[in-house]
Write a structure and sequence with these properties.
The chain is built from eleven helices and ten strands. By secondary structure, the chain is an alpha/beta fold.
């Protein structure tokens, strides 16, 4: 039997995205209806293909969390000059920089090699190069922020020394760099990180360097998972910081609402992203 609710939601998502994309230039110029400033620096890594998602994600952060010190879009190299200008029109705090401008000079060779072979290698290189001076956030472009996102201000103002990660709803790892099944516990999603200090990546990078085969899509997330746990990273509350696909096959979004901070709309539920986008 055809799941009408599921397919209707996917069609609705595609239509909403097309409509949003058609007026993207105008949307980028709409004024943000908040002046609240937050002591946070934000970084995101994206590409030309994801420009509509990136615009919607940035605007949702500014509207529901506040105006950060900077909101830096790290381009994988595919953004056109017009797209960079469009992103910067969203708000003066937004800047777009090429990945090569961000990269640290002592990036491990195995990470540089991974970055040449795979887009997720570029993301890993970006994560390792993000400067951390005070509370710093990394967010994927397929994340929407909601009114509960003001909780991030509390994290920024707190005295905790621990970095925070978004708990994953499944174990999605590269088994080749997992040496013990116990290391799979408390899976980390690499789409959202709250840095309180520079992370020590050496533990996980040693495993990447020993990998004889070509790194894959989930190699990056596995490196992040191992690194966060090696640095005693803390999980964010999964009821406020949502990564859940339990509503994949029904029409409504069961998790979006004013009480959550964010939802990561991973591939299985990406269409629901476009059922919750405001201006």
């Amino acid at each position: 039997m055809v799941n009408v609710s599921y397919h209707s939601a996917r069609v609705q998502g595609r239509v909403n995205r097309q409509l949003y994309k058609a007026v993207l230039a105008q949307i980028a110029s709409f004024p943000i209806q908040t002046t609240r400033k937050v002591p946070i620096s934000v970084y995101t890594f994206s590409c030309e293909r994801d420009l509509p998602e990136q615009v919607a994600s940035i605007r949702s952060f500014l509207s529901h969390v506040g105006i950060p010190d900077t909101f830096t879009v790290i381009s994988d190299g595919s953004y056109t000059a017009s797209s960079c200008n469009l992103l910067c029109r969203i708000h003066p705090c937004v800047e777009v920089i090429p990945l090569k401008k961000l990269l640290i000079t002592d990036l491990p060779q195995c990470v540089s090699d991974y970055a040449r072979l795979h887009p997720m290698g570029k993301k890993l290189a970006a994560l390792m190069s993000i400067p951390v001076n005070g509370t710093t956030i990394y967010t994927d472009s397929d994340i929407l922020f909601f009114p509960g996102g003001t909780d991030l201000i509390n994290l920024a103002d707190s005295n905790t020394k621990y970095s925070f990660y978004l708990p994953d709803c499944s174990v999605s790892v590269d088994e080749r760099i997992i040496y013990d099944d116990r290391e799979k516990s408390n899976p980390v999603n690499g789409g959202f990180i709250v840095f309180r200090h520079k992370l020590d990546w050496s533990f996980a990078i040693e495993r990447l360097a020993k990998l004889q085969e070509i790194p894959s899509y989930f190699t990056e997330q596995t490196i992040v998972h191992l690194t966060m746990h090696h640095n005693q990273g803390m999980p964010l509350c999964s009821e406020q910081y949502v990564l859940n696909v339990d509503d994949q096959f029904i029409y409504p979004d069961r998790f979006a609402g004013k009480n959550i901070a964010l939802r990561h709309y991973v591939n299985d539920v990406r269409h629901k992203f476009w059922m919750n986008v405001g201006l």
